[in-house]
Amino acid sequence: QAQLVESGGGSVQAGGSLRLSCAASGYILPAACMGWFRQAPGNEREGVANIFTGGGNIYYADSVKGRFTISRDNAKKTLYLQMNSLKPEDTAMYYCAIGSWNYWRRKCDNWNNWGQGTQVTVSS
Prior knowledge:
With about 120 residues, the protein is mainly beta. It has strands at about 5, 10-15, 20-25, 35-40, 45-50, 55-60, 70-75, 80-85, 90-100, 105-115, 120-124.
């Protein structure tokens, strides 16, 4: 099972930008899904964005559309999340994960491999 290590979190003011990275070690199927999730204190973990390069499918949560961009470098086995126009409500621990493409439901799911997370704090 691949190991996932997130980096790039930090503290920024509202309107600022951060770029998160998730480096994977070990074998990852090129067609696997990779995604970003976040969890704020007292809240459930929510999906932020995910990508299935096997079909060119990308998903964004409505709350981040137009502000966040997910990308993946298969050669480097690294997943990225470019976060622009950050808001205080983006404050959370951000996790990357590996899942699989559900051909029936046409979405990524079965998220079964998680990193330890990187903290993002946005101040107003």
